[in-house]
Amino acid sequence: MDHDALRHWSKIAADWAHDYHTGLRDRPVRAPLTPGAIAAQLPETPPENPEPPEAIFADFARIIPPGLTHWQHPRFFAYFPANASPASMLAEQLANAIAAQGMLWQTSPAVTEVEQVMIRWLTRALGLPDRFTGTIHDSATTATLSAILTMREQALGWQGLQQGLSAQPRLRLYASAETHSSVDKATRIAGIGQENLVKIPTDATLSMKPGALAGAIAADRAAGHLPAGVILCAGGTSVGAFDRIADCITVAKAAGLPVHVDAAWAGSAMICPEFRRLWEGIEGADSIVFNPHKWLGAQFDCAVQFLADPGPQIRTLGLRPTYLETAGREEITNFNEWTVPLGRRFRALKLWFTLRAYGLSGLRDRIRNHVSWARQARDALARLPGVTITTEPSLSLFTFALATDRETETLLSRINDDGRIYLTQTRHAGRFVIRVQVGQFDCTAEDVDMIPKVVADLM
Ligand code: PLP
After folding, report:
1. Nearest CA to 263 among 281, 250, 251, 100?
2. How many folded domains does the chain comprise?
3. What domain range includes position 193?
4. What is the distance between the alpha carbons of residues 313 and 327, in angstroms, rounded to a whole number?
5. To which protein family does this belong (predicted)?
C-alpha cells in the first residue's frame, strides 16, 4: 500500500467510521463472549506475499466488529467511559498521519509546545493554581507510577536509583482501600512491595480517616520505617469515593510527606466549578492525575499529570545519554525526562481539537447532563420493587443490588446478554453490587432511561 492507496482507503475508512458510529444503537453493547471465535478466523501464519487492500478491508469489516465491545455506544454504562469525541478522532487521524515521536523538543517542537499549552489550558479549566505544570502520559497507571517512583527517591535522598533498595530502610506509602488497583501495581513495580502500601481505614463518607493516617505514619516512624508519600482518591473506581483532600493533605504535610491525588475519572468533572468542593484543598497536592480519555472526550490514551514542582520527578526519571543531548537546555523542555517511556505520541493534539470544538461550556453541559441523568436513573431504579440503591450517586456513578448476591449476579448476566445496555459490577460493604456510570459522549436522556426499563424487563 502506498500513499495514493492510503488516500483512497482513508476516505473509505472515514465513511465506514461514520456508519459505525451512527449505527451503534442497533448493536449489542458488549461483544458476545465466545472465547477464540475471532482468532479462529485469522490464519495461523502471516502472508508471504502482499495482499490487496480490498481483501484486508473486507476481512476487517467482516471479522472485527462482531468481536467488539462498543465503548462509544451511547448506552455503555460499564466501567468508566473511554470517550472519543469526533473532534478527538479527527486529531488522532492527523497525529497518525504525522507519526511524530516527541521525546525531545527538537524531535518536533509542536508536540512539546502544544502539550505545554494544553497543560496550561487544563490547569485553568480545572481551577488549579497557575503554578501547576505537568505532562501527558499514556495512562493514569504510568502517572501514578511516576509519582510513586519520585516519592521513593525523595524519601531515599535519590539513593535508590543508584544503589537499589536492598540496603534501604522499609519504605511505606499510604492510601485508602477505595483507591484504584493502579496504586497497588505502581507500589509493586516501584519495588516498595504491596505490604508496604498501608491501607488506611475509611469513615462513613468513604474518605480515608485523617486521624488514622496520622497515626499510621507516626507508628511507622516509631518502628524505624521510612514513610514516603500519601496517595489520595478523588473519585474511586468502585463507588466513586472521595478522600477529604484538604484534611488528608494537612496530615501529610505536617508529616513532611508528598501527596499524589488520583482523579483519573472525576478530574474531568472539575471543569464545572460546582463539583470542585469534592476535591477542596487540591491546590496543596504535589501531583494530580486525571484522564481526559475517560470523561472529557480526548480519546484513549491521554492521562494528564499536574505537578506542583516537576523538579523531583525529572530528577527521578530523567536520563541524558549523549545521543539524547540537545542544545538550548535552559529554554526548552524535553518531556521524556518527565515520564517513564522515552518515546512519546502527539497526544496533546486531540486535547487541542476537543477543547476547541466543544468549548468548556459544551463539555460542562455534557458532564452536568450525565450527573443529572444518573440521578434520574437512580430514582427510577429505586422505585422498582426489590431493587436497593447500595451507594448514592457520586457525580454520575451509583450502585444497586437485589436481595441476594446470587440474584444480583443473575440479573447482571441477563442485562449484558440482552445487549441494550452494558453494566459492570463491584463489591461494596460485603455485597456484590451493580455499578451504573453515565458518561458516554453521545448518550442522551433517552439512552439513560433505558437502564431502569431493561432492569424492569429482566428482573
Ligand atoms: N484510577 C482510577 C480512579 C481509575 O478508574 C482507573 C481506571 O479506570 C485508573 C486509575 C487507571 O487508569 P489507566 O487505565 O489510565 O491506567
Report:
1. 281
2. 1
3. 101-345
4. 22
5. Belongs to the group II decarboxylase family.
User: What CATH number has the domain bearing residue 264?
Assistant: 3.40.640.10
Contact 381, 434 (CB under 8 A): no
In a domain, 176, yes or no: yes
| Residue 146 grid coordinates | 511516576
326: amino acid identity, one letter: T
Res 329: pLDDT = 67
Tell the burial category of 386 from Cβ atoms under 10 Å away from its Cβ (0-12, 13-18, 19+): exposed
3-class secondary structure, 317: helix
The answer to the question of residue 15 being in a domain is no
Burial class (CB in 10 A: 0-12, 13-18, 19+), 321: exposed
The pLDDT tens digits for 432-443 are 999 999 999 999
Pocket of ligand 1 (CB under 6 A): 80, 139-141, 180, 182, 235-237, 262, 264-265, 291, 303
User: Which atom of ligand 1 is nearest to 301's Cα?
Assistant: 15
Does residue 393 belong to any structural domain of this protein? Answer: no
Convert the pLDDT of each residue in 213-266 to its tens digit: 999 999 999 999 999 999 999 999 999 999 999 999 999 999 999 999 999 999
Ligand 1 pocket, mutate which of 176, 182, 231 (most atoms under 8 A from CB): 182
Distance of alpha carbon 305 from alpha carbon 144, whole angstroms: 9
- Cell numbers at residue 133, please? 505544570
